[in-house]
Amino acid sequence: MALVTLKQLVDDAFQNGYAVGAFNVVNMEIMQGALQAAEENKSPLILAVAETHLGLLDLEQYAPILLREAERASVPVAVHLDHGQTFGNFVKALRCGFTSVMFDGSTLPFEENAAKTKEIVRMAHAVGVSVEAELGHVTGGEGDPSPGVADPTLFTDPEEAQQFVQATGIDALAVAVGSVHGVYKGKPELDIPRLARIRELAGVPLVLHGGSGLSDEDFRQAIANGIAKINVYTDLSQAAMAKIRTAQGMPENTDFGKFMLEVIATIKEAVAEKMRIFGSVGKAK
Fold it and tell me: Is residue 7 one of the residues assigned to a domain?
């Protein structure tokens, strides 16, 4: 269909009560599985590359593949730099043709976060690229095996969210309301009243990071209160690793290439399940 911006996807999701999944594609197999799921379910899709994963891949080598596959897809696809913090990586992503970037200044003081975010917005919007930023801080890390818990002292303040959006001109706001990156320790509890208030004051599509490990009801309540983009990585990683562990019982002459087709199918199934929960099935436009 087309390579599109993040803004195009999340604006429609925000207005129509569903969320678009952003899946961290650290290799070709995850990318292929996610694209197959999106096309079979007629769902919009965000292919994300997190800055923390750049040690696993060469962005300038990988970007042309992501962009080509997004352009060839029968559904709208955005290509997104996730949790960017390094100026050079923003420049590289823009030069490579990414349609969206996230500046993560969530550990910075409010004024510094806002000032740096505004600069990224100025640079990205000049070339038609969407910008997501984070206010409050979602704890944990991408691929971190240590179970994490949310820190309420780091949750997003609704009034500050309003000020932040007005000061920066961002297209989407990532919020901290009880989710964590990676694996959860105990049962997560989302602060839905806080989320509802943020939606009311901020007025832009909201983003939920730490989408692995939440219940279907958590997702439904979050989406009903303004979440239009949900990030997922750990669930995909765990699904792929579970499939790989089954290889230990396979015959010694098992073909690696054919096995990777099974991994792709596993990823596709995991992504498709998230799309059904997020309500994005059939929403490709």
Answer: yes
DSSP 8-state symbol, 54: T
| pTM of the shown model | 0.91
Select from 208, 244, 231 the least CA-distant residue to 34. 231
* Residue 213, domain CATH: 3.20.20.70
Is there a contact between 135 and 161 (Cβ–Cβ < 8 Å)?
yes
Angle, helix 59-72 to helix 87-96, in steps of 10 degrees: 40
Measured CA to CA in angstroms, residue 217 lies from 52, 83, 190, 261 at distances of: 30, 26, 11, 32
Q: Does residue 219 fall inside a structural domain?
A: yes
Point out the catalytic residue in the list 12, 58, 82, 144.
82
Q: Which among 87, 16, 88, 68 has a CA at the least distance from the CA of 79? A: 68
216, containing H or E segment: helix 216-224
Q: Cβ distance 194 to 155 under 8 Å?
A: yes
pLDDT, tens digit, 9 for 90 and up, residues 143-192: 544 445 667 777 899 999 999 999 999 999 999 887 775 554 556 788 89
Q: Give the chain's domain count.
A: 1
What does the pLDDT look like over 192-246, one tens digit per residue? Answer: 999 999 999 999 999 998 877 788 999 999 999 999 999 998 888 888 888 877 7
Respond yes or no: is residue 82 known to be catalytic.
yes
- Residue 79 and residue 3 in contact, taking contact as beta carbons nearer than 8 Å: yes
3-class secondary-structure state, position 21: strand
